[in-house]
């Protein structure tokens, strides 16, 4: 692959305002980097995307393991440094770009990255869009608090519920603060992401499920029965509770992704379309 350095299409002032630099802590410890790369189990068949390549400590190990590496970095000085550091590797493209303005390929790829902590959730929303991203697996370094929210047994966010229909998210090892420059004030972990071989719901329903997740997660602490009554008739609820072994008095947040998948699939089978959850105002504005 030919080396590719894209000039950013932003003015200098916008570079100073971009959120990408906030919360960025560069990995430097060789042992930690080696562990992350080894756990990714890369092969020469893999296309790897590194988001926030920074000073290139992780990048130089990725190019030795993967078939192709796309290193994304916004800071022009760091881009020049990356070009010098990886000049002997023909299988890397260095792309100067704002992470949040990337369009991820629909073809299969792997992500191994130490992402800027301040924009963790926006990055994950782009990565884990099942229909527009070809992400197959990932090893993503992030703040432990964010990883805990994404993997918790208690699901309190519509986007986390949506992701978990299509991806398995597991919290990996905790990384020593001394592995970073500057050391973060919070604990860091590796989030392990794997696309489900068989998604909990079919991909063709992903847009509808996103709307459904926004609806049911509006009030995660209310009893499940309140949400069910807004969609199903009493006889349908009775049958659903019996078949799915649901406790209607438990809070919405205590259901796992598998139970929500069963509720959703039941909805599209037995509930007429006019009674399905409507798009939120936020969703309509985005369109």
3D architecture notes:
The chain is an alpha/beta fold and 287 residues long. It folds into 2 domains: 12-195, Rossmann fold (3-Layer(aba) Sandwich); 203-286, no CATH class. It contains 12 helices and 9 strands. The strands form 2 sheets. The chain has a 7-stranded mixed sheet with strand order 4-3-2-5-6-9-7. Helix 5 links the parallel strand 5 and strand 6. Helix 7 runs antiparallel to helix 8 (206-216). It is elongated.
Topology:
Layout: H1 12-17, E1 26-27, H2 30-40, E2 47-51, H3 59-65, E3 68-73, H4 76-85, E4 92-96, E5 109-114, H5 120-127, E6 135-143, H6 144-151, H7 158-166, E7 167-175, E8 180-181, E9 188-195, H8 206-216, H9 224-229, H10 234-244, H11 257-270, H12 281-286
Parallel strand pairs: 2-3, 2-5, 3-4, 5-6
Antiparallel strand pairs: 1-8, 6-9, 7-9
State the main characteristics.
single chain; 287 residues; alpha/beta; Rossmann fold; 2 domains; seven-stranded mixed β-sheet; two-stranded antiparallel ribbon; 12 helices; elongated; disordered N terminus; disordered C terminus; transferase; methyltransferase; rRNA_Ade_Mease_Trfase_CS
């Amino acid at each position: 692959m030919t080396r590719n350095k894209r000039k950013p299409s932003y003015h200098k002032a916008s570079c100073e305002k971009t959120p990408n630099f906030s919360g960025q802590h560069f990995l430097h410890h060789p042992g930690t980097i080696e562990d992350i790369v080894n756990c990714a189990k890369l092969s020469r068949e893999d296309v790897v995307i590194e988001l926030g390549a920074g000073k290139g400590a992780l990048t130089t190990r990725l190019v030795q393991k993967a078939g192709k590496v796309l290193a994304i970095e916004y800071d022009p000085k760091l881009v020049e440094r990356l070009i010098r550091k990886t000049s002997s590797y023909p299988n890397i493209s260095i792309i100067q770009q704002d992470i949040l303005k990337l369009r991820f390929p629909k073809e299969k790829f792997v992500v191994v990255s130490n992402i800027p902590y301040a924009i963790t959730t926006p990055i994950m929303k782009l990565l884990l869009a099942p229909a527009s991203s070809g992400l197959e697996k990932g090893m993503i370094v992030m703040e432990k608090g964010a990883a805990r929210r994404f993997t918790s047994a208690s699901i309190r966010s519509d986007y986390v519920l949506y992701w978990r229909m299509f991806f398995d998210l597991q919290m990996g090892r905790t990384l020593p603060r001394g592995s970073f420059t500057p050391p973060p004030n919070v604990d860091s972990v590796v989030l392990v992401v794997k696309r489900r071989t068989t998604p909990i719901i079919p991909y063709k329903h992903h847009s509808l499920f996103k709307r459904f997740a926004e609806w049911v997660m509006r009030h995660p602490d209310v009893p499940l029965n309140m949400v069910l009554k807004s969609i199903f008739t009493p006889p349908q609820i009775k049958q659903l509770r019996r078949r799915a072994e649901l406790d209607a008095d438990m809070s919405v947040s205590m259901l796992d992704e598998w139970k929500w998948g069963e509720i959703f699939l039941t909805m599209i089978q037995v509930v007429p379309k006019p009674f399905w959850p409507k798009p939120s105002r936020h969703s309509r504005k985005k369109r």
